[in-house]
Amino acid sequence: MELKVISENGKAAASVNASDDLFGREYNETLVHQLVTAYQANARSANSKQKGRSEIAKSTRKPFAQKGTGRARAGMASSPLWRGGGKIFPNSPDQNYTQKINRKMYRAGLASIYSQLVRDGRLSVVDALSVEAPKTKLLAQKIKAMGLDRVLIITDSMDENLYLSSRNLPNVLVVEAHQADPVSLVRFPKVLVTRGAIAKIEEMLA
């Protein structure tokens, strides 16, 4: 498979050969959904705590007589059926939200995402991307000249000037090839990959 390489003004300059297994795979929506869901679940922290029935600071005395009041019988005010009572199944900070994804599934899911990006015309390749100084304005001008706006930039190695220049751009994220996650790949409308990063991605997902 050939991927188009664009110049700094966004015009097609050349092409680069890429693996068909990585960039020409059929889209597996079920696998991609599982991959994205698991990635978000694994980033979730269990920091919610609710009180159960035994933890509520209320008297254990019977609120009123069992019979004769006409009301439903009640044993104590900490009942989950009452306002201010304990939760039946309270959230615990010990809860584990992680989901396991096999390595083979993860690689196949990423390959499916990359292949769909190519089919949709959302993935572009550039020979290299760098800025002369760590200035947001310089990177913003380069991205605009390429005809891009909201973009995920994947590089083979992190350039400090490029990283510092991107921090104040809310719609731009710069990552190395091994840091490209499924959520970012799906979320950004455009993905810009350096030629060196293509080789690294093929090496990782082969």
Automatic annotation (TrEMBL):
One of its GO terms (biological process) is translation. It comes from Sideroxyarcus emersonii. It holds the Pfam family Ribosomal_L4. InterPro entries: Ribosomal_uL4, Ribosomal_uL4-like, Ribosomal_uL4_dom_sf. Belongs to the universal ribosomal protein uL4 family. Part of the 50S ribosomal subunit. Keywords: Ribonucleoprotein, Ribosomal protein, RNA-binding, rRNA-binding. GO terms for cellular component: ribonucleoprotein complex; ribosome. HAMAP family: Ribosomal_uL4_B. Forms part of the polypeptide exit tunnel. One of the primary rRNA binding proteins, this protein initially binds near the 5'-end of the 23S rRNA. It is important during the early stages of 50S assembly. It makes multiple contacts with different domains of the 23S rRNA in the assembled 50S subunit and ribosome. This is Large ribosomal subunit protein uL4. Residues 42-94 are annotated as: Disordered. One of its GO terms (molecular function) is structural constituent of ribosome.
